[in-house]
Amino acid sequence: MTAELVRGQNHPLPHTRLEIRVSAGHPVVAAATLGDEQGRIAGAEALAHPGAAALPGVEVPRQAATEHRLAVDLETVRDTVHRVSVLLALPVGVDGPTRFGNSVAPVVTVAGPDGTGIAGYTITGLDRESAVVALELYRRQGAWKVRAVGQGYEGGLAALLADQGLERPAELAGSVLDAVAQGLARSVAAPPPRVPETDRVRRPAPAQPPASATPPASATPGPTPPPAPAGGPIDYTHPSRRPAPAAAPPPAQDPAPTAYPAPVAGDATGWSMDERLYNQVWGMFEDLARSAAAYRSACQFAESRLDQELDRVLSDPRSRIGGAGDAARAEAKARHDELTARAQEALDRDLAQLAAESEVVEPALPPAYARWDSPVWQAYRVPTEAPMAVRLGDLHLPERTGLRIPFLARLPLSRGLWVDSGRGHSEAAGLLDDAELRRLALDSAVAHAVRLLAAHPADGFRVRVVDAAGAGAAAFAPLVEAGVLAAPPAAGAAGVSAVLGQLTERVDLLQMALRAGASEDLPPGLDTAEELLIVHDFPHGFDDRAVNQLRYLADEGPAVGTHLLMVADREDAAAYGPVLDPLWRSLTRLTPVPDDHLADPWVGHAWTYEPAVFPAGSGVLRQVLAQLAEARGQWRPYRR
């Protein structure tokens, strides 16, 4: 998935052979400069442009065009090269805009050798500028990254090259643009754009659909990217939560401050309140991820810029000492402080808005989405249909640990769950002994199982338990006493083999029926309800055949409603070596204590996960199990 960058944000590059694609609504000139660790350009020979298109490791197009493809091989650039800057400029002497603000914002995409997009950046916020540093590839501690720059220059290509430190920038810019003009004179004009068939006949505009006809969020495309402001800052907020435009103040008064709309629970799109709340929570998740990404990247950009400016001061003997050097250093530090202060101000504004929204949304969440200490559980009743998702815990970032985002997993589960009872790399786990950590892991697994049972209709979800050593009898006792298990916990190697054999046969039959489209041919006694198998103390009691069956259930089970919930320490199964690696990778890893092992799908932040556990001394577990037992007792006569 291509990462969408904002100005100042960086992204790691998994490949050294890259293709940089440029798309604009008008012809642009593409060039590149090669710089050292301090960003200094050695001279004109370090500039790749249409008149000298190829340099070691970099090749640029030889004329202006609306679409460009630049080839970059970072392994073949000189060892002294630590930065590759991609430059865009408007050509002169041709029909077209004279500044970027009069045209569509250019889009730059970095792709791998197979054409798969790695990172993209839409250069918004340009106005009178006619040249821009689009992005830069830079080497940091032996690894290459890409950073979205978007630095424009009203003075055109000459001003850009001067800022890059090149000598006689006006002459160099003139030679570049002359080479472009000669190439345009030899090129064939592009054909006019084809008029779509639907645009050739004027048709009356369709009436607006009623609000009730809004399609569900699952069927609609993703959020529309923010519009490109003319000369203003980029709006990083989620489209559905942008501040309402303030009314124009009277000329004699100061402008009114930006007013954010009051948060409302369920203000996202969706057919039902359940779907709207689910989409709203994921919108908050994305908002926080992108706000933190913008803040971190802005701070990194400020630090990088400060380092460059200080290095530039120190490299000049005339300004190294004395009042001029002190003034230059103070000015660079002031610019750094201003950039970080503006980034912190934007982050605080976004966090305040998200915190206000969380305070409104959290009390409105249904039981499947709510924390175990929510009052909504006091009125819990077994549902008649399954919700869109269940809550597996909370997520937060270090920028504000008190702002918790519910970690919602879609139903039916597409992957099994693994509660890791090992220490891993968690600081919290390192403070506990092994017995306590295993106890917390089993309690966490029981809480997840009860959550899944409570989210489904009566007899719509079954739970089986494999506890070969019987070490989890105390934790499983409430489930056994309430009668919500499909069978007593299986113990010993024989019990493990019997349960895995039954489930493997069930998955085989359901898979064959699914592939053949013959569900009516299933055996009459086969129960097609969703099933969850809790495996405790793995690999105790498992032989090679049982391990293979477990891997089969993890891979094929979710497609036919058979899910795994493993409670295990990976180190306990180290004797199997890499044979079990596919099993662990196929499961969603959860922890019984806070741990920062989960990443978001947008920018890849490491989020701290906190498990959803029952509050100490609370009777919510017994209350929910009693409701489930009563509802299942009412359904059993109908099943007979």
Please give a structural write-up.
The protein has 640 residues and is an alpha+beta fold. The protein contains twelve helices and 21 strands. The chain has helices at 156-163, 169-186, 273-315, 317-320, 323-361, 427-430, 434-455, 473-482, 492-516, 544-556, 581-585, 620-639; strands at 3-5, 10-12, 17-35, 47-48, 54-55, 58-59, 65-73, 83-89, 107-111, 117-122, 131-140, 143-153, 389-397, 400-410, 416-420, 461-467, 530-538, 562-568, 587-590, 595-599, 606-611. A hairpin with a 5-residue loop joins strand 6 and strand 7. The chain is elongated and about 85 Å long. It starts with a strand and ends with a helix.
Question: Outline, from the CA principal axes?
Answer: elongated
Provide the structure class. Answer: alpha+beta
Helicity, in percent?
Answer: 25-40%
Mean pLDDT over the full residue set: 83
Please mark out the parts with pLDDT under 50 across 5 or more consecutive residues, or reply none: 185-234, 250-258
Helical run tally:
12
Question: How far apart, in Å, are the first and last alpha carbons?
Answer: 50 Å
Query: Assembly type of the shown chains?
Result: single chain
Indicate the proportion of strand residues: 15-25%
Please provide the count of β strands. 21
From the alpha carbons, calculate the radius of gyration and give it in angstroms. 30 Å
Largest sheet: 12 strands, mixed
Q: Gist?
A:
By secondary structure, the chain is α+β, with helices and mostly antiparallel strands.
List the helices and strands and how they pair.
Layout: E1 3-5, E2 10-12, E3 17-35, E4 47-48, E5 54-55, E6 58-59, E7 65-73, E8 83-89, E9 107-111, E10 117-122, E11 131-140, E12 143-153, H1 156-163, H2 169-186, H3 273-315, H4 317-320, H5 323-361, E13 389-397, E14 400-410, E15 416-420, H6 427-430, H7 434-455, E16 461-467, H8 473-482, H9 492-516, E17 530-538, H10 544-556, E18 562-568, H11 581-585, E19 587-590, E20 595-599, E21 606-611, H12 620-639
Parallel strand pairs: 1-10, 15-18, 15-19, 16-17, 17-18
Antiparallel strand pairs: 2-12, 3-4, 3-7, 3-8, 3-9, 5-6, 6-7, 8-11, 9-10, 11-12, 13-14, 13-21, 20-21
Helix pairs in contact: 1-2, 3-5, 7-12, 9-10
